[in-house]
Amino acid sequence: MRVRGLAAQLFACKRPWKPADPLTVADVQFLHKAMMDNRRCMVDRVFIGHLLHMVYARARFSDLLASVNCMLDDENMFLELDAAVHKGSRTAATKAMLLPVVAPANGITEDCWAAEYLALRRKSGLALPGKEPEPMLPAPEKGGTGWQKRFLTSQEMNSFMKRLFMDGGIPLEGRRISTHSCKATCISWTAKHDVSPEHRAVLARHSTAAQGPTALYSRDLVTAALRSLVKVLDAIRQQ
Question: Measured between alpha carbons, how far is 193 from 233 in angstroms, rounded to an integer?
Fold first, then answer.
């Protein structure tokens, strides 16, 4: 009881929660332009493609650390993979299941970012995850001559993001920008576009999105919500 009482007192003094800020449309347009820039280092362009993947897949950094079955569909419409490890998997039933992580292959610009991203990976010698869980983005070797076995950490990607934006002339003062900003971005856009709370919960892969602990692991559930997201992206693209 004394421990619980002390914990309650300490919790009352806890500083307010300040979530990461979502990226703006201009921020994401900058990422598209930077990934398509042939003057940039190939490894940097792969990193930027990974950021775009996180944006459109509404993914935490940890969601892509154990990926399997990554593929772009035949119509270049969706980039899909299964997450073997996911923050929301708490029960024995969900820990044994693969969570579908699906991203529209066409974003807020005219180019198919997913096809370009996968092409950059092939040119840099980075294979897509297959049947065995692998990180989508391993750490590069020094000098950009290959890829290490370990995955890139979120702290390393945070540093890359901030340097990328600052070098691109995008001010970050007063903004909380991190890898979690990528997950929040499309959810923020759908909220502003008046997409239903139910579809937003599915897109964010919240456990409140459906009845039953394994519902989010069904591909059928995400289909309608993805159509809502595609409409929002198209509206932004059309200005």
Answer: 10
User: What residue has token string 């569909």?
Assistant: 73
Answer positive or negative: Cα dihedral of 190, 235, 110, 162.
Answer: negative
Q: C-alpha distances in angstroms, 135 versus 24, 115, 132, 229?
A: 27, 19, 10, 26
**CA–CA distance, 194 with 238 (Å, rounded to integer):** 17
pLDDT in tens, 171-210: 999 999 999 999 999 999 999 999 999 999 999 987 655 5
Q: What is the DSSP track for 84-145?
A: SS-TT--SHHHHTSPEEEEEES--SSSS-HHHHHHHHHHHTT-PPP-SS-B-SSEEEPGGGS
What pTM, to 2 d.p., does this model score?
A: 0.86
Distances (CA, A) of 29 to 102, 163, 170, 237: 20, 17, 12, 10
Q: Residue 167 CB: number of other CB atoms within 10 A?
A: 9
> Which H or E run contains 149?
strand 147-151
Burial 177-202 (b: 16+ CB within 10 A, else e): bbbbbbbbbbbbbbeeeebeeebbbb
**Count of beta carbons in the 10 Å neighbourhood of residue 70:** 20
